[in-house]
Design goal:
Strand 7 and strand 8 (about 75-80) form a beta hairpin. A 3-stranded mixed β-sheet has the order 1-2-3, with no helix packed on it. The chain has strands spanning about 1-5, 20-25, 30, 35, 45, 55-60, 65-70, 75-80. The protein has no helices and 8 strands. By secondary structure, it is mainly β. It has a domain at about 35-94: Peptide methionine sulfoxide reductase (Metal Binding Protein, Guanine Nucleotide Exchange Factor, Chain A, Beta Complex). Keywords: Cytoplasm, Cytoskeleton, Immunity, Innate immunity, Metal-binding, Nucleus, Oxidoreductase, Selenocysteine, Zinc. GO terms for molecular function: L-methionine-(R)-S-oxide reductase activity; metal ion binding; peptide-methionine (R)-S-oxide reductase activity. Its cofactor is Zn(2+). It comes from Camelus dromedarius. It is an enzyme of class 1 (oxidoreductase).
Length: about 90
């Protein structure tokens, strides 16, 4: 499954089949379906990455509580990590 940008309808938001979500640009493994959960945002939500280097992170200075994330291999933009917005207290949401 390729993780893709939101262009009017995210096809993987309500998709909960077992599998691995990969970067649409280079195919690097990003998230497992085991870390996916239902969330009210229009994008799929995950609690953790597959590999420690699956994503690169950089501060988002104008959005407190959000960190900009991109593919750890090719740099393709993936969105944000929202701190303390996961399904359990203290968890982040990708």
């Amino acid at each position: 499954m390729s993780f893709c940008s939101f262009f009017g309808g995210e096809v993987f938001q309500n998709h909960f089949e077992p599998g691995v979500y990969v970067c649409v640009k280079c195919g690097y493994e990003l998230f497992s379906s085991r870390s996916k959960y239902a969330h009210s945002s229009p994008w799929p939500a995950f609690t953790e990455t597959i590999h420690a280097d699956s994503v690169a992170k950089r501060p988002e200075h104008n959005r407190p509580g959000a960190i900009k994330v991109s593919c750890g291999r090719c740099g393709n933009g993936l969105g944000h990590e929202f701190l303390n917005d996961g399904p359990k207290r203290g968890q982040s949401r990708f």
